[in-house]
């Protein structure tokens, strides 16, 4: 929201804006958000990434150079030499620690005396150094968005793993979602840490004896033992370590999906 207001201010002053994100997925998310917020106000928002087809990429570059596009959202593609702006006045860099100094400099060079807004939730030594030596003015957002409830944090030991899965199953049955994060993707001989793939296999094997949804969420069916309670099996494309509500509402098709 802060970046969108900055873009709107720049455009109202007669300038263009560029929003750069480190990955295509994040750039696409920003593009959809900015388009939803700004296009109803008459601003044209475009997406520029390396995956665009040559014809579409050429059309977007031409619109930027002609000043027809007010805000360009993209990845590193924005700093390529063949990308030019008619009057760039604001550059927004999200997850700025993921970009190098030269990349940010190339984006700034596409405008004259433009304003630079960098955003990060992960301050690194370089960011702190820029702040310390006066190259950045810092704005801290320490208030929750309207309607956002406080986050409850709790620490549990390995002995509570079954209780954790029970809690997640209850939340999934209530129509909510959950995700499980591990420090590694694959097992490592150098690090004694849990890996997502290994824990996913364990969770899948344990699913047959996992938590059983309450009768109210199973359309009145009986469940004499936890092992006899059926649960959907995640597809090959789904992350086996995820615990998802799936079609929690049922949409008239039966019990909720519980993945463990």
Q: What does this 3D model show about the protein?
A:
The chain is of the alpha/beta class and 260 residues long. 30% of the residues lie in helices and 10% in strands. The protein has seven helices and five strands, in the order αβαβαββαβααα. It has helices at residues 2-12, 24-38, 54-66, 101-108, 125-132, 161-173, 196-206, and strands at 16-20, 45-48, 71-74, 88-94, 115-119. A five-stranded parallel sheet has the order 2-3-1-4-5, sandwiched between helices. Helix 4 links the parallel strand 4 (88-94) and strand 5. The longest helix has 15 residues, at 24-38. Mean pLDDT is 77; it is low at 211-260.
List descriptors.
elongated, disordered C terminus, 260 residues, 10% strand, 7 helices, alpha/beta
What strand order characterises the main sheet? 2-3-1-4-5
Strand content: 5-15%
Low-confidence stretches: 211-260
What is the H-and-E element order? Answer: HEHEHEEHEHHH
Query: Nearest-angstrom radius of gyration?
Result: 24 Å
Tally of strands: 5
The helix/strand class is alpha/beta
What is the distance, rounded to the nearest whole angstrom, between the alpha carbons of the first and last residues?
35 Å
User: How helix-rich are the residues, as a percent range?
Assistant: 25-40%
Count, helices: 7
Largest sheet data? 5 strands, parallel
* Average predicted local confidence, pLDDT: 77
The geometry reads as: elongated
């Amino acid at each position: 929201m802060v970046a969108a207001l900055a873009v709107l201010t720049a455009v109202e002053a007669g300038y263009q804006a560029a929003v750069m994100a480190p990955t295509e997925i994040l750039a696409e998310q920003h593009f959809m958000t900015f388009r939803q917020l700004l296009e109803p106000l008459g601003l044209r928002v475009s997406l520029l990434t390396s995956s665009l087809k040559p014809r579409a990429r050429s059309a977007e570059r031409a619109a930027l150079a002609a000043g027809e596009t007010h805000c360009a959202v993209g990845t590193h593609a924005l700093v390529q030499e063949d990308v030019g702006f008619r009057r760039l006045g604001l550059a927004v860099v999200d997850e700025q620690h993921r970009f190098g100094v030269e990349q940010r400099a190339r984006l700034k060079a596409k405008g004259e005396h433009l304003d630079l807004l960098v955003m990060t939730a992960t301050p690194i030594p370089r960011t702190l150094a820029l702040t310390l030596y006066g190259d950045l003015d810092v704005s801290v957002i320490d208030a929750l968005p309207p309607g956002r409830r406080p986050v409850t944090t709790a620490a549990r030991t390995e002995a509570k793993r079954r209780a954790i899965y029970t809690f997640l199953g209850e939340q999934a049955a209530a129509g909510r979602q959950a995700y499980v994060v591990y420090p590694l993707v694959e097992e490592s001989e150098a690090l004694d840490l849990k890996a997502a793939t290994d824990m996913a296999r364990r969770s899948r094997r344990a699913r047959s004896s996992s938590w059983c949804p309450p009768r109210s969420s199973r359309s009145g069916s009986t469940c004499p033992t936890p092992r006899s309670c059926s649960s959907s099996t995640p597809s090959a494309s789904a992350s086996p370590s995820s615990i998802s509500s799936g079609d929690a509402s049922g949409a008239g098709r039966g019990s909720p999906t519980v993945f463990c």
